[in-house]
Amino acid sequence: METQLHVPSRTAKAVKSVKANRQAAVSALVGRTPRSVSHVVCAAPPDGASAPSYKAPADIPASGTPAPSNNVVSYTTPQPVSGSKPGAKQVPMDGNEATANIAYAVSDVSFIYPITPATNMGEMVDQWAAEKRKNVFGNVMSVTEMESETGAAGALHGALAAGSLATTFTCSQGLLLMVPNMYKIAGELTPCVLHVTARALAKHALSIFGDHQDVMAVRQTGWAMLCSHSVQEAHDMALVSHLATLRSSVPFVHFFDGFRTSHEINTIEVINDADIKTLLNKPIYQDAILHHRSRALNPTHPHQRGTAQGPDVYFQCAEGANRFYDAAYDHVVAAMEEVTAVTGRKYAPFEYVGAPDAERVIVVMGSGSQAVEEAVNFMNANGHKVGVLKVRLFRPWNAEALLAAMPASAARVCVLDRTKESGSGGEPLYQQVCATLHEYEVANPDSKRRYVVGGRFGLASKEFLPSHAVAVFENLALQRPMRDFSVGIVDDVTHRSLPESKLLPISAGISTLPAGTFECMFWGMGSDGTVGANKEAIKIIGNAGLQAQAYFSYDAHKSGGVTVSHLRFGPNKIAAPYLVQQADYLAVNQQSYLAKYDTLANVKPGGVVVVNTTFTNVDSLGKYLPDKIKKQLALLKPRLYLIDALAVAKASGLGKHVNMVMQTVFFQLSGVLPIDKAIALLKKSITKAYERKGPEVVAQNHAAVDAAISALVKAEIPASWGAITTAPVNPEPESKLNASSRWEFIEKVAKPMLALEGDKLPVSVFSPEGFVPPGTTAIEKRSIAAQVPVWKAENCTQCNICSFVCPHAAIRPSLASAGELSGAPSTFNTINAKGPGLSDLKYRIQVSPLDCTGCDLCTHACPDDALKSVPINSVLETESANWNFATTLPARKDLMDKATVKGSQLQQPLIEFSGACEGCGETPYVKLLTQLFGDRLIIANATGCSSIWGGSAPANPYTTTEEGYGPAWANSLFEDNAQFGLGIAVGTVQRRRTLHRHVEELLAADPKTLPVTEELRSTLTAWAEKWQDPEEGNRLGKALQPLLTAERHHHPLLEVLYNERDLLHKASVWIVGGDGWAYDIGFGGLDHVLASGEKVNILVLDTEVYSNTGGQRSKATPMSAVAKFAAGGKDRPKKDLGAIAMSYGDVYVASTSLHANYGQVTKALAEAERYPGVSLVLCYAPCIMHGISSGMCSAIDESKMAVETGYWPLYRYNPSIKEDGVHHPFQLDSKKLKGDLEELLSHENRFQILNRKAPDAAGKMHHEMDDAVHVRFDKFKHLAAGDFASPIKEAEAKDAKTQPKKE
Ligand SMILES: Cc1ncc(C[n+]2csc(CCOP(=O)(O)OP(=O)(O)O)c2C)c(N)n1
Ligand code: SF4
Ligand code: SF4
Questions:
Q1: What family, per the record (predicted)?
Q2: What is the pLDDT of residues 2-50, one digit of tens each?
Q3: Which ligand has an atom closest to residue 152 CA?
Q4: What is d(CA 668, CA 1062) in angstroms, rounded to the nearest whole number?
């Protein structure tokens, strides 16, 4: 075997380079500066004249060329990017695209799985493969989506073992799942590249944002680790890693900062395929590829791998690979030099930038190095001697190269890690640098001792500004610098955070950007088109020859949240890996944001501010604006423009889409391009983007562009606004803050976060374990609906269906006695309540306008035309007051059976106002679950949409009853949810058994030695009998609470019972997740739970795609649907999870569609919960990803049609009902098939994409689906012994009295 291994050869250049490094290291040892080392870039300005210089806050001018009087900013001719290749193509793209382009060009095979923010790379390669794009070998990449990252890594390993050039893309939890196979791939010395958008890990909370926690968790697997610091580097280092892995046989993790680099759009120079081909045609790569293929598993030259070894040989084999790692550094240098040769851009594994005689140096890896570099330039221009040592190659670590790059003058070093290793003696990069310096100093006793400290920055994309880097340098200058510190937050608990910089305080607003950089911010609402329009604008600007950068920040909501687009452009290369701090141009696309958020906080004095508002004269605007904003405007003195963009959009036929209007205005006021040219380019891009939607849509957008500029109004800010005095807001009284942890959380955490000021919160306000109180969405009052429903009492038949279908619990029935209505607002009209036991009450349907999303589902669902959508402004005041009054009315939950459609809606929904999309099909199921069992629910929630709308800081939509009971909710991970839920169920049952035993012991004890009151004894006796009955047992459990509290001190056993009193309440454990979880990544665990026989319930919210990550295919995706990762349309049928579950014979299985049959789903949930073993409820959940052509308000009709055509069957399989010829465990709830499946499919874009692209293939697949639907329906009829389409009736619920078999 040994002889088959290819020992990588060094190229002459690589040897030369390593020699140079060693020489430089030696120079460093003897105290000379490493000037002669080729890759050391001294970026300090030669004369200081052109460098940014420190200016006192008072004389900060607006950056960029001053605006001429016509308010148009003009630009000088763009300068070429330093290090660029003459004639190279400059294209604005994000880091993911920059990387994916290279990965696609040089790989034949990829196995993918979605995870934010790496997903786009998988989507791109899938798309390109579907388009039959060829890579440099002339092949179309083979792209396969796997069921999980575990699977992707396994398949990758297999493809590599078969001699393929294979790659994949992942991060965070996905990367963690790859660890076992990463060891294998490295252990077998296999060339491979894994591209990682480095992201935070799920610990006290999940975060999709960027840091190095994930990559640092795989640093021990034997993969080389190469880090890109910018979008351009992501492109270049991607190629370096693919080259270096071939050269070295060591697999590479190529990583860059998730979201920051992966999603930052920047103008980069693209390496063309011809250059890549030329490189790969070099003998060294041809040999390496040949060698890789020759080692493949092949029966014509067989070998075995992966055998077992014992103590005698394992160790030696492991050490045998050392020389590959020893050589890898040189190969990276050689590959970098080759990339330099084709691009003109110089790279080194360690790059020093700064003063050649720097006294203080920061060592850092990733995009943060660019912020440090800006700080270094700023400080050196102000007389300091500082530098930054950028680390690109973290593994294999090359101590000599680090020493070579470090200026000998550096007496103080700070290593910044973008990760946190709790309990360690320092983070990994710090430890590595310390070890290197220590070993060197021990080996060279006469050498200078360096003072080294370490700190953390930028976790989960926390902003890291040049100002923070300056603070780090200032710390280094202290006599005793702080160690193990954090920067960028306020740690008022363990006091480890650095104070704000004195030299470059953030508040001073000093820009360290290249001169002439123009900065813009656009505040928009999620899905209003602002982000898309800005992406287009940046392309137009970039393609016109300017350097451009764009970054988009979002709040926690899935839709209707705030988006802020941060755009920069100018003549010089822009790095700045942080948000815009001082905007030259601010657009506020939603009028309400002016009052709600501090949108003006980051505007440069004298900058341009454009507001989309219905108040287009300054007087009316003045009446609307709060004093604080008017004062701010007066102080900032911006050039203020107002435009009623909504009116322009409406007049142009674009409805509420104001993005094109605001874009045109931007081009007019920014002056980035001559306006005629800008408009021509804008129209061209519109034509390209909307062509597919037809000429009318193109014309409407063009019309909006034409009408925009004339609708713009220049407003003069009245001098009187400057004289306004604003009183400080009184803080809440301490007593209220301390009233409960919930209110404390709301006041101290939720409210600042909702005002987008979470960055300012100190450590002390958070619970360190990440636990949060329920019920915080009640204070959000997002007011995102343009239209809200109002109730037409005269038409209402009191069915409660509107409330049943509402995804946000924003419409509810009220029942009140005449007396209770005495204080009602005059507009709170009611009708006599209908139904047994309700005759003394009045009935009303009430909407909360501030919580409604305007989805229109309720108005569509109402069978009686008793709801009408009206503009929110017309009813906001009255209906808000009515809602507030309705919430004070007593709950009337015991008047009707709650397991009915109407009765369920008289129960308080214990999830409300979640951030799910308008019309979401998932939330109504969970809302119903909380109405049926909410006060005893425990939910184990898989990661997915339901975990995001179920709990994204600070919005916690699960809430409690007045007594404080409500769903206890937890998300562990995506992949382990079934097992996590099973653990909760088993753990709870075990603890309750112990409690029951304790109760029985107490009851059996001699009353003389253990005296209890008769009331406590009799209640305990009753509970001990009924403890498994959730109704009676829990009622007794509640009654026991005060009794135990009163008597707890009378005996130790009573104290034990008192301490366990929360278990008197029987819980209902539900394992909830989406189809991606249930059908794919979590299926192994789910199957195990199905087979467990435990009393546990599973709810699958089947949107037929991975909705949360943007709509990738799962095994629940139906045939022919086009989803992400199935760009060519899915060619396999949907997996039948119900059939799999039913095959166990003892699992309760229901297939439901809430919108299609309200009664059936209510019944199914009640039965499932009662069933004494495992239950599985499959829920058809319409989702925005389906692309329903008439919008989500049609989800009800669509769902009905899905059931009628057999696309989604309704059934319940209840093993408690024994087949006896009369009763059947399988109940088919669908009626006879009717309607046309093809018509259903024609309503949804996911099916129509293929129909447009390949109508023959689509037609064939639709036929196949239709046939399969009929075959399945016949099978169901057979199972139901012909008894289908029977009404939902109580009769078959023989199981009701069945006692749980476990517990
Ligand atoms: C191991 C791992 N891989 C990938 C992800 C990223 N991820 C989070 S949610 C999700 C999709 C969830 O889809 P689904 O289960 O269908 O639920 P939905 O969002 O549709 O409700 C993915 C891929 C993750 N969190 N963990
Ligand atoms: S419009 Fe939508 S969110 Fe508003 S009350 Fe109706 S169903 Fe609920
Ligand atoms: S399931 Fe679909 S509609 Fe619901 S929140 Fe997720 S993406 Fe939005």
A1: In the N-terminal section; belongs to the pyruvate:ferredoxin/flavodoxin oxidoreductase family.
A2: 333 343 343 334 334 434 443 443 333 333 333 222 333 322 222 333 3
A3: 1
A4: 64
- Is any atom of ligand 2 closer than 6 Å to the C-beta of 381? no
Can 1108 be counted among the known catalytic residues? yes
Burial code (b: 16+ CB inside 10 Å, e: under 16) for 986-1001 equals bebbeebeebbebbee
Answering whether pTM is above 0.85, one says: yes
| DSSP 8-state class, residue 809 | S
> Can 1015 be counted among the known catalytic residues?
no
**What are the E-state strand segments in 878-963?**
937-941
H-only helix segments in 188-221: 213-216
- Residue 190 beta carbon below 6 angstroms from any ligand 1 atom: no
End-to-end CA distance of the chain: 56
Residue 149: active-site member: yes
Which pLDDT band holds residue 725 (cuts at 50, 70, 90)? Answer: confident
Which residue has the CA at smallest separation from atom 12 of ligand 1? 944
Catalytic annotation on 1035? no
Catalytic residue among 96, 116, 190, 419: 116
Question: pLDDT for 418-450, tens place per residue?
Answer: 999 999 999 999 999 999 999 999 999 999 899
User: Per-residue confidence at 728, pLDDT binned at 50, 70, 90?
Assistant: low
- Distance between CA 1211 and CA 1153 in Å, rounded? 10
Give nearest CA residue, ligand 1 atom 11: 1106
CB 351 within 8 A of CB 358: no
Residue type, 901: V
Cis amide leading into 514 (omega within 30): no
pLDDT in tens, 45-83: 223 333 222 222 222 222 222 233 333 333 333 333 456
Residue type present at position 1053: L
- C-alpha of residue 464 to centroid of ligand 1, in Å: 29
* Ligand closest in space to the Cα of 559: 3
CA of 859 to the centre of ligand 2 (A): 8
Ligand 3: lining residues by beta carbon, under 6 Å: 558, 916-917, 920, 922, 945, 949, 1103, 1107, 1183-1185
Does residue 480 carry a pLDDT above 60?
yes
Task: Report percent pLDDT > 70 for the chain.
Answer: 91
Residue 1107 has pLDDT above 80, yes or no: yes
